[in-house]
Write the structure tokens for this entry.
Amino acid sequence: MNIDKLYLRSLGAAVGLAVMLAVFGFLSPVYAQMTEEQLAKIPGGDQPIKFSHKVHAGDNEIPCQYCHIYARRSQVSGAPPMQICMGCHKLIATNLSEVKKLAKFWEDKKPIPWVKIHDVPDFVRFIHQKHINARNEVYPKGLACQTCHGPIQEMHVVKKFNPSFGDMGWCLECHLTIPGALERKRAMAVGPDSKTLKNMLRPSGEYRPNLTDCMTCHK
Ligand code: HEC
Ligand code: HEC
Ligand code: HEC
Ligand code: HEC
Ligand code: HEC
């Protein structure tokens, strides 16, 4: 089922309920089985609401981009809009204390002050969209979230999977595996020959972005 399309349709108020019932049906094997005792066993970390990726993206298989709607469309993935949470939680698990906290933020029209885990300094240019939509010989379908963030769907509390995450060396280590990156780097030093020129192009004929140049990542 294409849950993304379902959500778009749910924006139309008339079909909203029908769509909710479809989502509800889809989740029914797990829905409403959690007790307050089970909830208490889920670690919550420092987050204002005990939100578990394992429960949502793992056990209930909700696709990452169903919630992180900005990841493929813009520079930042950002926290999911609260409407998306409430799309389910107006009906689902409404008696759990942590879901009540969510409903309270919603009623008070206050944003949830999520604690940010992954961060690079402001002088670094990192664009999610370009990575998720990247198509090349190494990543023919673009980069999966897990390539960089690790198995988030298995985590109750999100943490940095790779301790080097966000370091300059971490970025470059991957960038240097992209076809054309090394050749292009060398060509900058000694001047291009015909082979390096060829490697600087994608099979489609466009120039590859220069993945090792300082100005690519620094503003
Ligand atoms: C597609 C439906 C869906 C969406 C969207 C959704 N949830 Fe849930 N959520 C569930 C289900 C199913 C459970 C498990 C309920 C149970 O087993 O009783 C759950 C459980 C929870 C719980 C209790 C257990 C846990 O995971 O910690 C919290 C808190 C929660 N959700 C918060 C949120 C927040 C915040 C958002 C928005 C960022 C959100 N949910 C979006 C379906 C959804
Ligand atoms: C039900 C909605 C929902 C789904 C599905 C979901 N997320 Fe999240 N995600 C959130 C919320 C809410 C936060 C902020 C709270 C937190 O950090 O747990 C978050 C935080 C994150 C963060 C940390 C952001 C930071 O502060 O650095 C990453 C990385 C992330 N999600 C990746 C993923 C990936 C990868 C998937 C799919 C495997 C996924 N998410 C599925 C709601 C969701
Ligand atoms: C190429 C590596 C890479 C991939 C692939 C990737 N991310 Fe990220 N992610 C990062 C980096 C680096 C940051 C820190 C960005 C910043 O601070 O500006 C980040 C930050 C985040 C955040 C925190 C909020 C923000 O945007 O800064 C969320 C949420 C997130 N990623 C979710 C996702 C999801 C969902 C996917 C898949 C659809 C994904 N990421 C794919 C590297 C990646
Ligand atoms: C796991 C691999 C991987 C990691 C880690 C990674 N990147 Fe990338 N990056 C890519 C790929 C693939 C592309 C797209 C290449 C293409 O379009 O041919 C890319 C492209 C870019 C671009 C060029 C976008 C454009 O088209 O103009 C920038 C800027 C960038 N990355 C910054 C970063 C920064 C900053 C980090 C570290 C915080 C990082 N990347 C980490 C794989 C990665
Ligand atoms: C693929 C992306 C990428 C490229 C290319 C890149 N950098 Fe960086 N650079 C980063 C990231 C990410 C950080 C932040 C690391 C951190 O937080 O420790 C950084 C940090 C730095 C810092 C440290 C700043 C500080 O105050 O801590 C300097 C200096 C720097 N880069 C210079 C360069 C120079 C010079 C080049 C070209 C030879 C270059 N960078 C190319 C991603 C990149």
Remarks:
- Residues 167-219 form one domain.
- The longest helix spans residues 13-27.
- The radius of gyration is 21 Å.
- The chain has two domains: 1-164, 167-219.
